[in-house]
């Protein structure tokens, strides 16, 4: 429905008085009706200010080009970094998977269901196994094997394939480490699910190591991928209790429920332009 | 510290464009620096709009009287219900208890600790038992027995005693039903903790009835007291898991942890002017 | 794998000394190796005693007929109600659905994944909508319309169809109230998911009523169906937090996650013979 | 009440058939009535078997000396490590604190309340600050300063002081690292609360580091102290959600609630002989 479309401004700048007044006055002057607004400053004095403000597209008097032009002086006055997002332009995401299907099953179900408002131009995998699942949802599935001996070249090929097709990537238990050049191509636009509560158990085999350590909770963490493995800004995390009776297999089974929920949440937040990054941390509006 | 004091505006009115612009412009004009702002509308079209906006008192050019006067035209233009709150004016709360001490112990510890920024002019009880606890914190303790045969008169006496002393009341497992005239004297200003996840198990003996029903979770609910028992607007709720091994005594023991946490949370929210009431529901900013 | 098969005894009787000794001695004598054992008595004195004890089928010297015969004297001595279950005999469950697919999607995924060790001879619905989902998993789908004017007869037909085919039923958001004669045919063998934390919001439209009441948590309850609507023994429950920003649609969306998790948990517990019923409550081993 | 006293056997040995039968037969022969029993084997084949079995002291025909003597042959047959515990012999715990009071306040309140069934012969601190709290509960408070230049000698003095007075130690945010000789004097009998979800943020300033890392959950871990800092067997863990708005001070405040709950839980489990250690992990019955 047209009347549900919103325009969202994401803003950051040095904090000082008058920002909210200027932005809200701008929206009001051009007949925008604010439907959601959130803000945060990193400190009371001289902090960095972040804002996410959404207003109805219907009735707003400027088109996208006009908006950018008209907002420019305000942005300049406050030294803002800013971007504008139209909800009717759904973000396009490629989902990358390997052999485990639980996150993909969950994402696709939520997507078809309307919980995740994104477009999925393709599903990519280093294995052919999950193609039937993609077909079920009539989504293109591309098999890009990654070979140890040609890993960089293989990823390069994948990167070229994606060129221009997508806005962000979802690693839904994709069992390959992405090369730095690949990560740099999608800064803060690759979402990974790691199967532990980071920063505990970074790297390989977290459930096995959780079992060995005898923890009483296990968890999952969705984060933006950076060049340092499992060190990127955390978007969402959750845990589940476990006990001595849980074998490694039980931890894996219980963990699946947390992984898929946390990844879906992060994808939803990102797709709605709710996540800003500041100093390797996220502000989630 | 002076620089930490904030002024908070609570506003509600019919939703229409321009409210945020007008309010933030007002604050900016008088040199206020916004430190927190949240808003909510009950519907996209023709809803009711609610706003809580806080700005530093330091540097703000108007004193309280001037602020009220200067804001009046804006309030009139939008037909606002509004109030202004200065954080340096701590709210004064009377705590009412009976014999159970867990909520009182917790509230007092958090209070002394700085988690709850309120003044406590008195603790009131229908029993003498918890006086030593009050004394430990050097707080006045008043024993107001409530007798079946003179219940209304007894409460009347209590009400008169409180006159002018407090801004709100905390029923920390106070085992008496307040008379309608008493409740009416403190509309949306009496916080009760009920030991169940409302609306389940309203009324007496909720743990016993939870045990009988064989539930797998028990909970607690903090709400504003209205004339209808356990039907007032809910401020905070939480639960804890239980199982067949839990006797009624175990439920009571586990429940204490939830009760005290939920009550403290509700008191904190109320004391920071974060709770607005709309149609027997709360908006918690 | 043969070596993973276990035999499980479920026992209840008046509590008195010697029960555990007798049962464990019986298992030991016939070369059984206990792999899991749990027990519970409703009271220290004169309570009812419940036990679930599992031992490896491999190496156990008695076949099923011999086991029953040999255990009979022990059962008689203590006045036991008891049953024996072989894990290699997977329980057969019919899943009943209407139009909402989230619980069915989840159950089928967990089933194919090995989390739910059951057979699913058929999926039954009063609507044709979810047939494609059944077909995806190559499961028979039967459309049994229930008409207001012939409700009892329609259900009778369904009951006859199920005759001999299944051990228990799963109501995965099946939007029909089962007739008493139907319920009586599967005592403590029909698992329903109700979309509220019972006993709050029994009956229709719980999310709408949760919204109206302004609760800060919503939940889901899996229970055995009895003739009294939403009053049967509770097997599993869980909740999720919500707030004033959640519309009814948001509650429905958030609730789906809880519903599917709680229903799957209840089905797993039932399928592993972990649930005993006592006075409309469950003992979950 | 005499009738509530129980005798608890803790047993571990190589798993093989007949253990439960032998133990339960032994209890039955001497007129013991089992009130609780739990067991666990680390593997289906050739695992290590653990058992905790409790029976009423009332009516049991053997006194402690006789029990030990009579059980010896069974223990020998199965090569058991075992111990026997009488609930009427409350465990004696020293609580060690520094300046932060939240864990101590909570432990003492639960103790007086009957939630923690232990004796507290003394509270020990390297600071004088919390003495008034001890006095409130009429408990002896001993100030043992620990100086950098005489740390080992200071702890030696403390160790000698404790000699014969206590069964286990509770470090309730005690801000000193215990010397190896001290730890060795109380193997698996010193419970520490660490203010993070281990193994994340071992060592100093975990809240600060959690803030820096931008986690969305914080937690607390109760564990037995071993010579390796924060690496001992974990008894209990829990977490709470946080977000970008939480300053380090907020994390500390929220964390206090988790710390005190997790520590109290671990103390309760230990005091009821519910915790067994195996390979740096705990089995919690």
UniProtKB/TrEMBL annotation, chains A, B, C, D:
GO terms, biological process: 'de novo' IMP biosynthetic process; one-carbon metabolic process
HAMAP family tied to this protein: PurU
ACT domain: residues covered: 8-89
TM helices/strands, residue ranges: none
Pathway(s): Purine metabolism; IMP biosynthesis via de novo pathway; formate from 10-formyl-5,6,7,8-tetrahydrofolate: step 1/1
Name this polypeptide is given: Formyltetrahydrofolate deformylase
Originating gene: purU
EC number of this enzyme: 3.5.1.10
Organism whose genome encodes this protein: Thermogemmatispora aurantia
Job of this protein: Catalyzes the hydrolysis of 10-formyltetrahydrofolate (formyl-FH4) to formate and tetrahydrofolate (FH4).
Keyword Isomerase recorded: no
PANTHER family in the cross-refs: FORMYLTETRAHYDROFOLATE DEFORMYLASE, FORMYLTETRAHYDROFOLATE DEFORMYLASE 2, MITOCHONDRIAL
């Amino acid at each position: 429905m047209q009347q549900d479309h919103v325009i969202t401004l994401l803003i950051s700048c040095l904090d000082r008085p008058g920002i909210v007044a200027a932005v809200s006055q701008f929206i009001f002057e051009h007949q925008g009706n604010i439907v959601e607004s959130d803000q945060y400053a990193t400190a009371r004095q001289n902090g960095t200010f972040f804002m996410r403000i959404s207003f109805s597209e219907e009735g707003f008097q400027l088109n996208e080009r006009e908006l950018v032009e008209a907002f420019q002086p305000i942005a300049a006055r406050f030294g803002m970094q800013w971007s504008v997002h139209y909800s009717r332009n759904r973000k396009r995401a490629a989902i990358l998977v390997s052999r485990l299907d639980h996150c993909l099953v969950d994402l696709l179900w939520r997507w078809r269901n309307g919980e995740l408002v994104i477009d999925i131009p393709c599903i990519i995998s280093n294995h052919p196994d999950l193609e039937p699942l993609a077909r079920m949802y009539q989504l293109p599935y591309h098999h890009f094997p990654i070979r140890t001996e040609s890993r960089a070249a293989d990823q390069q090929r994948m990167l070229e394939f994606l060129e221009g097709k997508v806005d962000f990537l979802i690693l839904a238990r994709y069992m390959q480490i992405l090369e730095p050049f690949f990560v740099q191509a999608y800064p803060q636009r690759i979402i990974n699910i790691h199967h532990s509560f980071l920063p505990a158990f970074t790297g390989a085999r977290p459930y096995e190591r959780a079992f060995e350590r005898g923890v009483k909770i296990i968890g999952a963490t969705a984060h933006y991928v950076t060049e340092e493995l499992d060190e990127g800004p955390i978007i969402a995390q959750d845990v589940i209790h476990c006990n001595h009776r849980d074998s490694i297999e039980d931890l894996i089974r219980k963990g699946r429920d947390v992984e898929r929920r946390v990844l879906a949440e992060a994808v939803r937040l990102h797709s709605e332009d709710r996540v800003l990054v500041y100093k390797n941390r996220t502000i989630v509006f």
